[in-house]
Amino acid sequence: MPSGHFGPELFQFLRELKTHNDRAWFEKNRARYERDVRQPLLRFISDFAGPLARVSRQIVADPRPVGGSMFRIHRDTRFSKDKSPYKTHAGSWFRHRGKAGRGPGFYLHLEPGSVFGGAGIWRPEPPTLARLRQAVAKHGAQWRKAVAARAFRQSCTLEGDALLRPPRGFSLDHPLIEDIKRKDFTAITRWSEKDALSPKFMAQMASFCRATSPFMRFLSKALDLEF
Questions:
Q1: CB 15 within 8 A of CB 89
Q2: Beta-carbon contacts of residue 24 (< 8 Å; ≥ 6 apart)
Q3: DSSP string, 8-40
Q4: How far apart, in whole angstroms, are the C-alpha atoms of residue 74 and residue 83?
Q5: Per residue in 23-80, pLDDT tens?
Q6: CB 3.0 to 4.6 Å from 146: which of 55, 138, 163, 214, for a disulfide?
Q7: Secondary structure of residue 95 in the 3-state scheme
Q8: Which 8-state DSSP code applies to residue 203?
């Protein structure tokens, strides 16, 4: 049976990095990071371009080592009390070509004990969030159709933070007020480490993207973007 893109060495490296999250250890093990984490994920991103294009030609799989879909391993510690220099997961963001990094997209997260895929927009900027809430309020039937479809419900769940009270301008008795209160418009599916190591994993990621495409199309349309 052909092997997948990722090997158990990826998760082993990340486990050890969590224990030894310092520059001296990382530099000593940089070759392992390149071989077991960075290069496999860049290959996955490159190979995923074809399956992703069959879902949407507006979502980009960019395999460039710098500035592409793969997130850098270094943490931004400028405003954090946690000064650990490295992330203990590997991630990639398949962004919308028309909205830089702030539009709807797909996300892949690889971490020991936490492998998941995401679709949508996490922490949208206030003007974007306002437009999404207005779209849900105005086009409720389309929103329900997108998130109530069988493929969507079987593949993922809507997750993220929400306000405790309705945002300004929306009534508490609106039938979709719980969705209007969302601060994140994200759909999440979860896999195991075993799934991530399987040669079928890319197909699973593509299936998730297809299942969430009506949801993604709704978000894109709300922001005047093609999907």
A1: no
A2: none
A3: HHHHHHHHHHHHS-SHHHHHHTHHHHIIIIIHH
A4: 11
A5: 999 999 999 999 999 999 999 999 999 999 999 999 999 999 999 999 999 998 888 8
A6: 214
A7: coil
A8: H
